[in-house]
Design goal:
Layout lengths: L2 H32 L4 H11 L4 H18 L3 H16 L5 H9 L8 H4 L4 H10 L15 H9 L4
Helix pairs in contact: 1-8, 3-4, 3-5
């Protein structure tokens, strides 16, 4: 490795990560439109970080969902629109938004039984995989992104 190779790798990763953020930002905007109580979380997040960091913000949303699931008189009814949006956004599980939901929502509520029981089928499937209750099927495995292959090649690991 040298400074030139490091710079090339960082440029590849930067270009790749910038391509993921618009989908995630649009998803978060949609959640704010759907659920007015999420708007103050977003405002506080931007105040604290001067930008939107999707994974951290989604973790804040997971904590909010946990509070609602514990404290609301009818959590399934109150949270149904949000969970429907999460299920829809999951799609085939092979996109930047499903990645965001997986690592910053499902993995933050894995031990919150009040929330877990509200998960729809796609998120419940990921939950069971995450907690070791089920194995990933071959059709659920993602191909290695081209950018990762390029980075591995630069690192001499291809």
């Amino acid at each position: 490795m040298n400074d030139r190779t490091d710079k090339e790798i960082l440029e590849l990763i930067d270009a790749w990560s910038r391509s993921l953020v618009p989908e995630q930002a649009g998803f978060i905007r949609g959640l704010a439109d759907l659920e007015p109580e999420i708007r103050p979380l977003i405002a506080e997040h931007v105040h604290d970080y001067d930008e939107i960091l999707p994974t951290l913000l989604m973790s804040d949303i997971a904590r909010w969902v946990t509070r609602v699931a514990r404290d609301h008189e009818d959590p399934p009814a109150r949270l149904a629109p949000l969970f429907a949006r999460l299920e829809d956004a999951w799609g085939d599980g092979q996109n930047p938004v499903s990645d965001l939901i997986a690592v910053s929502f499902v993995e933050n509520i894995f031990d919150e039984s009040e929330v877990v029981k509200l998960l729809g089928p796609k998120l419940a499937r990921h939950y069971r995989i995450h907690t070791g209750q089920e194995k990933v099927r071959s059709d659920e495995k993602r191909p290695i992104p081209n950018i990762v292959e390029q980075v591995l090649k630069k690192l001499g690991r291809s």
